[in-house]
Design goal:
mainly alpha, globular
């Protein structure tokens, strides 16, 4: 049954069947062969979406889209530049910091890349930065969008693993900061290598002016994350608060959004949310088949038969996660692979929180590894450069992020909640 499930799924993907339908069809084939009542298919599709935590997914996507298409991203970038733009290659640092800050708002890698890239890539090009390198840097910084909370993939993982979304969010900060630090270090090296210019001289007046403009954007993650961690509201409620706050700021503070624009953003967010929710629904029967035929336990026994060394097994799992990110979209990979890996992880005594964080980081790296490299496609759309050219420039950043990934895998003390 395991062979039928995975082979049919891979074949369906190779012939171009959308991921959601490939998942459901593979599960259906196993159900037919096993002579199980097909009613289970519909029951599990409904049950997999019947979770309060999943309410956060469409709301965080909507909030991210509202801010990505508005003035917030621009004023945040201007504030960051007023602080660090005077350094050699300072605009590279600003690019990464802007990506990290926007990550604390959007919960999406593509939204982070789009918001920061639309503002900064033209400015980087104007100041003499190589356009392909600038696009690669911002695409790489966009991967932090799903690591620093709020994070849509963390919500999906929490639903599957039955862990606390709040706990996962708390443990996402340090890995996200580490990713940002390595990207800044690489970008500074390249700034000196290519002799990039310094920005405007530091001015306290300019800092105060840009801070005044950006304060409404700065307050958003403070309100969302502060409310979650202080216990005032759950992550799902925080997502709704984020939408209300984003609409308020866009309509009444920055006044860069009208009703027509709001409707268009709602349509785009609804499409993105629908894709994720259909995948979640179709993963229900897939997960039931895995559990019913004890496929994860069989895989765990098989892997433990190869080696009982925890570090060797974690290395193998890490390679599979990185490889999955190359060929699969982030949400799909988490929904499909989490039920497979979790029994093995638990058998080795590894914290499911630690595994969740490293899983999200590893899959996030897939956002800049072709062929399924959503951040590179977004950067290509902004610049008009072919994706092959950006892919070459992203290699140094990709290597840096992989180093951070393996640090998180093998040094769990980097995650404060596991100390």
């Amino acid at each position: 049954m395991a062979a039928l499930l995975f082979i049919s799924f891979i074949v369906l993907l190779l012939i171009g069947v959308p991921v959601a339908f490939a998942i459901a069809a593979a599960a259906l084939l196993v159900l037919l062969k096993g002579d199980v009542k097909l009613l289970i298919l519909v029951q599990r599709m409904f049950a997999s979406t019947d979770s309060f935590s999943l309410i956060a997914v469409p709301f965080f996507i909507f909030a991210g889209d509202l801010l990505a298409k508005g003035k917030v991203s621009r004023v945040l970038v201007e504030f960051a530049e007023s602080l660090l733009g005077m350094l050699k290659g300072g605009l590279s640092i600003v690019s990464v910091l802007a990506g990290m800050f926007f990550a604390a708002i959007s919960g999406s890698g593509a939204a982070t890349t789009a918001a920061v890239g639309a503002t900064l890539i033209p400015e980087l090009k104007k100041r003499g930065y190589r356009e392909d390198s600038a696009a690669a840097l911002i695409a790489a910084a966009g991967t932090i969008g799903v690591v620093i909370p709020p994070s849509v993939p963390m919500v999906l993982y929490a639903v599957i693993s039955e862990d606390s979304v709040n706990t996962l969010f708390k443990n996402g900060f340090v890995p996200g900061v580490l990713m940002g630090v390595i990207l800044i270090a690489i970008s500074l090296y390249q700034a000196h290598k290519f002799n990039y210019p310094k920005g405007k001289a530091f001015s306290v007046g300019n800092v105060l002016r840009t801070f005044k403009e950006a304060i409404w954007g700065i307050l958003m993650p403070v309100i969302i994350l502060g409310g979650i961690f202080s216990g005032y509201f759950t992550p799902s409620e925080a997502a709704a608060v984020a939408v209300i706050y984003a609409i308020f700021v866009s309509f009444f503070i920055y006044r860069d959004l009208d009703f027509k624009g709001l409707v268009e953003i709602m349509k785009g967010s609804a499409k993105t949310s629908a894709v994720i929710m259909i995948i979640i629904a179709c993963s229900g029967p897939f997960g039931w088949v895995l559990a019913n035929y004890k496929i994860p336990e069989a895989i765990a026994s098989g892997v433990l038969g190869i080696s009982t060394n925890k570090y060797v097994i974690m290395f193998l799992i890490s390679l599979i996660i990185l490889l999955a990110g190359v060929f699969m979209e982030t949400s799909s990979a988490i929904i499909i692979l989490s039920p497979v890996f979790l029994p093995l992880v638990k058998a080795m005594g590894i914290s499911t929180i630690h595994f969740g964080i490293l899983f999200v980081v590893g899959i996030a790296i897939g956002m800049i590894t072709p062929p399924v490299a959503i951040n590179l496609f977004v950067a290509s759309g902004i610049t008009g450069l072919p994706i092959e050219r950006i892919s070459k420039s992203v290699i140094p950043y990709l290597i840096g992020l992989i180093i951070v990934f393996f640090m998180i895998v093998y040094v769990p003390l980097l995650i404060p909640g596991l100390m």
